[in-house]
């Protein structure tokens, strides 16, 4: 008996059946979202710009700048000298300043929102984003004779500043914050201060709201240190020298300074090493943690405002961006891995105090 030829109605019915009875086979996982470096520069005469960079990590890695201009610009008064940028949850970059509202740039949505300003003034320039980007703590003060307090910016239920239930720092806490880092427990912040009183290192437990002084020693890096689980250490830029520092995490209840080591100068990423050989030029460097023992150094070198023909040009700087991994070799020495990337850019500079910084998201 010959098979009946399926007509159009039969075909439609089969298609409808298949649409309502999904294929049980597992779907392949979605490819991971590609990340980028977001470089913050003071290359705009009215404020700051964020540029989206592509990074290729291999033996001859390169960093490509976006050819379509900045991803976003932040307007800021020229009198402002305290603008700080931080990575937060949701692939957002947050700008905090004494003189302006808090600005939040969502890199995924390419959207900029304006939030309430920081209550008070940044005391000692200390502000730190906690691991995971859920909270941003800022040490603030209403003036010289007023006690310092912690304000916390949280993403829960919208961006908002709230007073953190943390006691003021104990004396003799100095005004100038030299270094800080978050303990692996996720809620204890180590803070080193310097000043006429000699300085020292403290911890603040953001859960208990308590401070503790650990001694007159300082953390070996300046600015923020970043914890890496594989290295089991904080990584930062050392107070003295131009390389990378790895520091053991001290005990929360102890008083002894931690041991630390630096990367050998010959192991520094070549483009970064080249930028350091500019005697007499003002240089600034910042460090960013990218996860999985990978880091990014942004080194800026101010250039002369002269085009070589005697014509004075607006201030400019050379920005050198270096991405690299870190590991300990068999002898316990801190080394850079072979997979690295670098790029250099010459850009205008409008705020002499500002240090360009990058975020990986």
UniProtKB/TrEMBL annotation:
Question: Quick one: where's region Disordered?
Answer: 1-34
Question: Which protein is depicted?
Answer: DUF1618 domain-containing protein
Q: Report which residue ranges the record marks as coiled coil.
A: none
> Which PANTHER family does the entry mention?
OS12G0113100 PROTEIN-RELATED, OS12G0624400 PROTEIN
Among Pfam families, the record links this protein to: DUF1668
Record's compositionally biased regions (Basic residues): 18-27
SUPFAM superfamilies linked: Tricorn protease N-terminal domain
């Amino acid at each position: 008996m010959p098979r009946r030829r399926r007509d159009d109605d039969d075909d439609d019915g089969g298609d409808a059946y298949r649409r309502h009875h999904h294929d049980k086979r597992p779907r392949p996982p979605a490819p991971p979202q590609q990340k980028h470096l977001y470089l913050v520069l003071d290359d705009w005469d009215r404020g700051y710009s964020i540029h989206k960079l592509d990074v290729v990590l291999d033996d001859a890695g390169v960093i490509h700048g976006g050819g379509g201009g900045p991803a976003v610009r932040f307007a800021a008064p020229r009198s402002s000298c305290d603008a700080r940028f931080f990575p937060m949850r949701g692939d957002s970059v947050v700008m905090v300043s004494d003189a302006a509202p808090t600005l939040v740039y969502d890199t995924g949505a390419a959207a900029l929102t304006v939030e309430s300003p920081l209550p008070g003034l940044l005391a000692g320039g200390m502000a730190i984003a906690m691991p995971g980007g859920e909270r941003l703590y800022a040490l603030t003060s209403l003036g010289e004779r007023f006690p310092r307090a912690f304000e916390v910016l949280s993403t829960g239920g919208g961006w908002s500043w709230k007073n953190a239930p943390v006691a003021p720092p104990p004396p003799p806490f100095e005004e100038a914050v030299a270094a800080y880092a978050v303990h692996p427990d996720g809620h204890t912040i180590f803070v080193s201060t310097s000043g006429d009183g000699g300085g020292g290192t403290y911890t603040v437990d953001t859960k208990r709201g308590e401070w503790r002084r650990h001694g007159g020693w300082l953390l070996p890096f300046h600015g923020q240190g970043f914890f890496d689980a594989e290295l089991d250490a904080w990584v930062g830029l050392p107070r003295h020298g131009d390389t990378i520092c790895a520091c053991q995490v001290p005990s929360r209840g102890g008083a002894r300074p931690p041991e630390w080591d630096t990367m050998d100068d010959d192991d520094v990423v070549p483009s970064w090493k080249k930028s350091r050989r500019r005697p007499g030029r003002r240089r600034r460097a910042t460090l960013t943690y990218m996860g999985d023992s990978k880091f990014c150094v942004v080194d800026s070198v101010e250039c002369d405002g002269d085009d070589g023909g005697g014509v004075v040009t607006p201030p400019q700087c050379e920005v050198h961006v270096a991405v690299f991994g870190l590991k300990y070799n068999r002898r316990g020495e801190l080394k850079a891995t072979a997979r690295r990337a670098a790029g250099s850019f010459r850009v205008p500079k409008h705020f002499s105090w500002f240090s360009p910084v990058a975020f990986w998201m």
